[in-house]
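Researcher: Quick test of sequence recovery. Tokens follow.
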């Protein structure tokens, strides 16, 4: 009985080896395709050639004047004059008093953005004493006093977008909502900062609230 089993196993081994030789993979030839639709797309790939268009490409250039969703253009130049103009024309889209207190949520998000991108130069409290400034780089002005208090939100947004002086533009690092969030966080720091010796916060020195203007960011 054991001998018969050995003969049977040997015969099966021979059959398996023979099948492997007959149907062995030929790396120079493609495999058999049983369901070709699962491998070859009926539709054109985005970067494939396409004879249906004059350009010979599947992906076509956007129509002139096309605006990507959520990316309304900003018609400003990186100049101080345009920064002031942005202060008059751009409106902070975060409005307090609505359901869920969006201003408080925006400030919380802005605190995270500030900690990642702003602390190095402006410092944790916004006084311009970040680690970069303490190691020889020209320190930025304090965000808690002076011009920063008088600037409107739109002007701060322009500075974040295009940069100013030694500050580099942050448009590549921060999306538009994040720029508004960090502005709201800066406003919250300004509103809670104690006055310096010999200074008092008057209404003129108070942090600017989201500026009321006739033109919003989406209309610029």
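Model:
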């Amino acid at each position: 009985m054991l001998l018969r089993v050995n003969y049977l196993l040997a015969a099966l081994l021979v059959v398996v080896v023979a099948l492997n030789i007959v149907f062995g993979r030929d790396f120079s030839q493609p495999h058999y395709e049983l369901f070709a639709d699962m491998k070859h797309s009926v539709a054109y790939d985005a970067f494939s050639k396409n004879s249906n268009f004059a350009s010979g490409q599947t992906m076509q250039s956007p129509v002139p004047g096309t605006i990507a969703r959520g990316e309304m253009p900003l018609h400003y130049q990186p100049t101080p004059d345009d920064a002031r103009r942005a202060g008059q024309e751009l409106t902070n889209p975060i409005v307090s008093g609505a359901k869920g207190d969006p201003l408080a949520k925006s400030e919380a998000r802005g605190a995270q953005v500030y900690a990642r991108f702003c602390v190095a130069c402006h410092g944790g409290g916004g006084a311009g004493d970040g680690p970069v400034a303490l190691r020889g780089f020209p320190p930025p002005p304090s965000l808690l006093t002076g011009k920063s208090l008088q600037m409107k939100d739109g002007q701060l947004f322009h500075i974040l977008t295009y940069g100013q002086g030694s500050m580099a533009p942050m448009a590549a690092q921060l999306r538009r909502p994040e720029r508004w969030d960090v502005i709201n966080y800066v406003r919250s720091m300004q509103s809670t900062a104690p006055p310096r010796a010999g200074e008092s916060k008057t209404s003129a020195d108070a942090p600017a609230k989201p500026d009321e203007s006739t033109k919003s960011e989406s209309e610029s």
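Helices lie at 2-22, 80-89, 102-117, 119-122, 147-150, 153-162, 176-192.
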